[in-house]
């Protein structure tokens, strides 16, 4: 990886984490998951769009049997005092008594998970855990138990390896941070 800055939508980014560093963190996390879920058949619930690249690398390294489903969380304004309502699109599987692992690219405020977890738990799974590539502890606004975190990062704006800036940058193999 060169030391070159890149520009996306007139915003400058500098190299932050190389593809090799990401691979190392993802491999370590996959080993933990493989050990913890040995003898079980987990259902990986991948949150699109950001989680696709992390999920692909994580699941290639997961050694046990597993199933994979992709979901999208859609936000829309609710009526009255509820504010933002989030709907899960794509989860047609029966998750009752299943061990779910939600695969997310980044947990910052925790708002998405705050909405998603009760919806999943209402479907009667045996367990629900979160596996995230990045966690920004400084941004967390909700009490959230994150058992599987590949990398903790400061409250910086990052792009690449699935994460975008207004739609661009997801395809970068490395992760860049805003300058």
Automatic annotation (TrEMBL):
Pfam families: Pribosyltran. It catalyses: GMP + diphosphate = guanine + 5-phospho-alpha-D-ribose 1-diphosphate; IMP + diphosphate = hypoxanthine + 5-phospho-alpha-D-ribose 1-diphosphate. CDD domains: PRTases_typeI. Residues 20-165 form the Phosphoribosyltransferase domain. One of its GO terms (cellular component) is cytosol. The chain crosses the membrane at residues 41-59. The keyword Lipid metabolism does not apply. Keywords: Glycosyltransferase, Membrane, Transferase, Transmembrane, Transmembrane helix. GO terms for biological process: GMP salvage; guanine salvage; hypoxanthine metabolic process; IMP salvage. InterPro entries: HGPRT, PRTase-like, PRTase_dom. GO terms for molecular function: hypoxanthine phosphoribosyltransferase activity; magnesium ion binding. The keyword Chloroplast does not apply. This is Hypoxanthine phosphoribosyltransferase. It comes from Hymenobacter montanus. The lineage of its organism: Bacteria, Pseudomonadati, Bacteroidota, Cytophagia, Cytophagales.
